[in-house]
Structure formats: structure tokens, C-alpha cells
Amino acid sequence: MKYDSIITEHLPMPQRNNDSNKGDYGRIGIIAGSRGMAGAGELCTKACLRSGAGLVTVAAADCLTEVYEIKFTEAMVYPLACKDGHIAAEALDSILEFISTKDCVAIGPGLGRSDDIAAILEGILDVFSGALVIDADGLFALSSLKEKLKETRARVLITPHIGEMSRLCGTSIPEIKKDREGTALRFAQEYRVTVLLKDNVSAIASPDGRVKLNTAGNPGMARGGSGDVLAGVCAAFMCRFTDPFDAACEAALTCGIAGDLAAWKYGMESMLPSDTVSFIGQALMEPASNHIKQLED
User: Fold this and answer.
1) Residue of 68, 151, 76, 80 whose CA lies nearest to 117
2) What is the pTM assigned to this prediction?
3) What is the torsional sign of CA 66, 259, 53, 92?
């Protein structure tokens, strides 16, 4: 591993002007949650809010509406038709209307796996032209829709872990672990998307050939919900940085530092993804060099 490929410092965050308003910091839609997995939508939404998003609305199956209205003070909730505890395909028209006013859409955390979700993602890829973050169950749906990535007008960032990447590219997990950078880059270039490949060392790749590695973070983050947090940070930063590659690099670094701060306070055994969310603000102010592991080749 080359040290010069490791992210070592925060990117400058665009300044907030005195005469700005909430619309200047991103209108974000989060399509997430299903019965039994409402927490994924909660973590994603709260991480997005904590990362500076201006206006966040969660679109979820209407069986979760009351749950989310209790959970969220700062985010709005947009109810959608429900089928067996998840968003129904018949909600597609409502979703397309919902995303038409959004600068960024994040889809996937806790959605569940069904043909309905694949149909919804296909519809979004067909018409959306803003920033699009695809995570978790959204990636499961994407595995049968990869060619759509070559046609979409959206600026797409995908955030797979190693297992999800294996399904997407048909490469074994051991092979991917041997060549994270190459795997991420080949997919990014073939499908014209930005890739944030999550692992103990994460690889971020751009279609134009840039690759960076993130080494911030710790094994205490290896638990359900950490990916949902990262997806929310990515969505917020996709509205703050014009380049999806910059947004992905800064999101990976910020989550890693926030996780390190949570581990320092609670220990790796006891820290929770919600603790990572609570440290995002401090992570944005913390010098990155304090948390970067100096890995050998």
C-alpha cells in the first residue's frame, strides 16, 4: 500500500454564507426502512442531518410513518404504499414525484429485498438527474440493473462492503481483498460511477482513474448499522462537494474518525453506530492526522 494514496487530511468544507438558507445545503431524500429494519433508516437520516444537510425527508413504507415521526425531530417523513412491510412497487409514481425536488437521494438502508425494490430503483435510474447514493438493499437490487448505470443521468455513488461488491462484480471475496483498489477502479470505470468499497481499509475510486484509501476507523465499527451511518454522511456531502469522489473520500474519513472517537470514549466492544453519529461534528473539526494508521506496504 502506497502511503501517498491514503487520505490524510480533511478537504476544505465549503463555507456557510451569512445570508444562506436551508436550501443552500441540500434537499435530500432518503428512501429507507422496512418492517423490522426501521433502525437503518433512522441511522442514515440522523447521520445525514449531523453532517450538515439543509433539509432531509425520509420516504418510507406507510407502516413506518408513526415510528419515524416519533424518531425524527429535524427530518420530515413522506409515507409510501406498503406491501408486506416494505415499500410497494405501486409507490413508484409517488417516489418519482418525491425525488423531483431533491438535490440528492440515498436509497437502500433497511429497504428489504424484493422485486418491488428493484422496480423502484430502475425507475429512479431512468429519470433522476441529481446525486444518487446506493447502499445496502439498494445494492442488492442493483446487481440485476448494472447496465442502467451506463445510461442514467444521475451522479451515482455506490457504497458496497466486500460481500456486496462480490455480488456486483462476480469476483470472490478473497480476490477482492487482494486487490481492493483495482476492483473498485475497474467497476467505477466500466459503469461510470464513484465506488466507496468498504472494508478495514476502504478504497474509493472515480471513473476518471483516481483512487484513494481510507485507513481511519477501527474494528468496533464492524457491526450492523455502521454502513447506514456512512450512507447518510455520503448523501449530505454529495450536496456540499461538487465532485462525488471528494464527497466519498471526505465521508469515509469523517466516519472513520468519528468511529475512532467513539471507541476512545466507549471502547470497541461497547461502541454503537449511533455513537459514531454523535461524534460526526467533532470528527469534522478533528485533524485527520491524529487518527490515520500508518500502514506498511
Assistant:
1) 80
2) 0.96
3) negative
Least confident of 42-56, 155-169, 226-240, 280-294: 280-294
How sure is the predictor about 295, in pLDDT bands with cuts at 50, 70 and 90?
A: very low
Q: Which of 146, 92, 101, 156 is nearest to 119 (CA)?
A: 92
The superfamily in CATH containing domain 26-288 is Ribokinase (3.40.1190.20)
87, 58 Cβ separation under 8 angstroms: no
Cβ neighbours of residue 161 under 8 Å, at least 6 residues apart? 197, 198, 199, 227
What does the pLDDT look like over 203-223, one tens digit per residue? 999 999 999 999 999 999 999
Domain limits of the chain?
Answer: 26-288
Question: Of how many residues is the chain composed?
Answer: 297
Identify the CA nearest to 255 among candidates 43, 98, 56.
43
